[in-house]
Amino acid sequence: MLKYFAAFEVFFEENLSKLFLHFKSYSLTPDIYLMDWIFTLYSKSLPLDLACRVWDVFCRDGEEFLFRTGLGILRLYEDILLQMDFIHIAQFLTKLPEDITSEKLFSCIAAIQMQNSTKKWTQVFASVMKDIKEGEKNSSPALKS
Fold first, then answer.
1. How far apart are CA 55 and CA 14, in angstroms?
2. What are phi and psi of 85, to 5 degrees?
3. Which of 13, 40, 135, 145 has its CA 20 to 30 A from that of 34?
């Protein structure tokens, strides 16, 4: 999951730089909210009708859409989240407002660009995986001897 979080943060910073810096200032990392969202496919944090729409698109588009959805949620509530501190952000993101509309959410999801410079989600994720594997090789005691 840490590899997914690292790739997510690349697009978080690219799409929502102000909110990204706000989260960083509180050391609020994606594992605090994103793990719950992804593991439950948003069924715990979104109203069921919205979660079902997310599932439909996830089945069609694949895992990238789950991360686009996360960024779409952050975009939708960016102004509110920028006014909150760590504990209130964590609480808010655990259970999102029930009055969230599919039109607003999917509009925010559509506005998310899953391309960093010239790399798409799959390329960024592959790059993160490669960097981590090379780091593991370089730090492995067995390989140093």
1. 25
2. -95, 180
3. 135
